[in-house]
Amino acid sequence: MSVIVLQYFLHMNFIQQSSVIRHISAMSDSLKIAIVTDAWFPQVNGVVRVLSTLERELSAAGHRVGILSPEPFCTMPCPSYPEIPLALFPGRGTARWLDAFAPDAIHIATEGPLGWAARAWCRKRRRRFTTAYHTKFPQYVAARTRLPLAVPYAVVRAFHAPSSGVLVPSPAIMVELDDWRFRNLRQWSHGVDIALFRPRAKTAFAGLPRPLFLYVGRVTVDKNLPAFLDLDLPGSKVVVGDGPSRAELMRRYPEALFHIAHGDEELATCFASADAFVFPSRTDTFGLVMLEALASGVPVAAFPVPGPLDVIGDSDAGVLSEDLRAAALAVLDIPPARCRAHAARFSWQRVADEFVANLATES
Known about the structure:
Blueprint: H1 3-25, E1 32-36, H2 46-60, E2 64-68, E3 75-78, E4 81-87, H3 91-101, E5 105-108, H4 113-124, E6 130-132, H5 137-145, H6 150-160, E7 165-168, H7 171-179, E8 185-187, E9 212-216, H8 226-229, E10 236-240, H9 246-252, E11 257-259, H10 264-272, E12 276-279, H11 288-295, E13 300-302, H12 308-311, E14 318-320, H13 324-330, H14 336-343, H15 348-358
Parallel strand pairs: 1-2, 1-5, 5-6, 6-7, 7-8, 9-10, 9-12, 10-11, 12-13, 13-14
Antiparallel strand pairs: 3-4
Helix pairs in contact: 2-15, 3-4, 5-6, 11-14
């Protein structure tokens, strides 16, 4: 899609958002907000981090936030990703929770069983709601099942079709979803906790040869980790995270260190201990871990695709190239202060304000 078309699309989206902002400003300052999500603790991933930080920011702003997660339900492991629990038959429980909470606004964050149950409740009661496109779920399904990509996209498009606003983390993903005929798209960026993720002493992974090239995130097929682990790089490669592909990749790449961080402080120390952050995914909608690396003073090497294009852009805080090895070596010359300064532009307060402005409430 041409730059002109992209600019036009973003301009029209701005007009849509402006009308929502005017509508929200006419309401009371404090809202009772229900967030329904199939992804929640003890899962550790970008969606959980975004939603938990959003809950904290919204509460600090005076809103009352209720989170409906799989925790109170009977669950089963997600096929091909057993670390994710899926709520079993959540319709009645979801309806009881929403009836009792009586929210002013409802946001459905994920396309799992709880998301579908909340969607059904809203449609039955003719309640408006917003949704979010956090993950390229169609690509993940296609990669695991070899279904034509159009099939899972049709299912996900149907899920979001009744939404008053589909919150999308970047302009590039908005254009991509527009090509797949999604409607009511609204931009909603993500932020980073610059107090937690900051330059620190490089104490993690002591004894490993330098430079240290790091990946943090889910260890799944859609993250394209072999593109990083196959690279001929000096020093060491470290993968921090868990997921269904971890055991297989540990067997295939015994020279790499695979590590699981326990708690935010250890995770932040892992980030800050790296010399370069390598992000091989071609399918992420945003890539929050890139911001966390930058806030830690660590430059990013990635492919020039949606996600990295939106986070790194032309900031010179990273290198985007189809030659990922060349990018990983080139970022070693980027000063930490430049990375930190770029990450500081992504404020969580702004993210929370955008979220509230996009909410759909009863008129």
